[in-house]
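Predict structure. Input: FtsX-like permease family protein, 412 residues.
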Amino acid sequence: MNFIENIREGLRSIAGNRLRTILTSLIIAIGITSLVGILTAIDGIQNSVASSFAGLGANTFSIVARQDAFRRGGRVQKQDEPIDYHDAVQFKQRFPYGATIALSTVAAGAAQAKFGSKKTNPNVQVIGGDGAYIPVKGFTLQSGRNFTENDLTYALNVAILGSEVANTLFEKKLDPVNQVIRVAGNQYKVVGVLAKKGGLTGGDEDRIVLIPLDNARAMAGTQRQTFNITASVPTVADQDEAVGEARGVMRQIRRDQLGQQDSFEVERADDLAKETENITGYLRMGGFGIGFITLLGASIALLNIMLVSVTERTREIGIRKSLGATPKRIREQFLIEAIVICILGGLGGIVLGLGIGNLIAMLISGGEGSFVVPWAWMALGILVCVTVGLFAGIYPAVRASKLDPIEALRYE
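Output follows.
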């Protein structure tokens, strides 16, 4: 009996026990689904994160105030003083690096926008910004215009809407530009609408109403505000030097003493991207571990089923050995059966894993992520299937090949 005939015999045996084959393949499919699904979801999330940071720009950095207290030596330290309007304007005037600098502040974190009888949920963020806010933050205008110098100088009641706010209020039936809306008790004339940004934030950047910076200051009244400074340098190569210069200028403005820790934080877009990539790397390791444990359980189940198969087919093995089948051919047949079952389950698991993984990534990224086909993880899945098949089939195959033909023929 040659190797090709052995393959045919193994396939005939699998076809003759369809229910057992299907159930066994499902066990393997669940393991591969967990492995490929988790890793596909992580790759999809990573792509969404990369797209979000690409929209912001790799040559961008922000100077922000720390928002919470921190511990040092077992004692809670006071949080830093907010970056006030004077600090922000001073930085914009004194930073010598030829960067485009945008100043912004959050005027209201949970406001409600209204137009006639239509209104949004109270989750709209009202942001005060200058003319550089839209290009530096990576937004694009879908319609209308950006703030003019006149809007900013005289603090006119004009607003630029995020795409979700515009769609909720006007339902794509009416052009929002030149319409008047009410936000946080004030009326604003809509002069522009931002294109949908989406991304990993879950649509937060599409639920904004952008107003001139001085309007946001007036809206805050006597409440203390903190201002964010975002700078975009000409090239990525200039960023290290620009960040160092910005830190020095800001320390002078904030009067930080020599040897004292910065009273602010500098957040680089590429640093955030690298940190996120490191986190997803750990998630991949965890996902692989979970998938491996699931596959280990599946291989043990397959081993048990193959042992049962050897017991059921003892008489058949005796007949084949009496007709001249060598122990090697007997081992090959059982190994082929185990590997084919694993590959069938693996292919089903890969298809399910791709679908489930991309669905999870789409839900987390707010529907903005692209469909990911992780060829490396798929190849790994097939390799794991073959390995599991060998692991689960080798012992039953060796046991079957060692059966005495006379004793096997007597088996009932």
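The chain has two domains: 3-53+274-410, 60-267.
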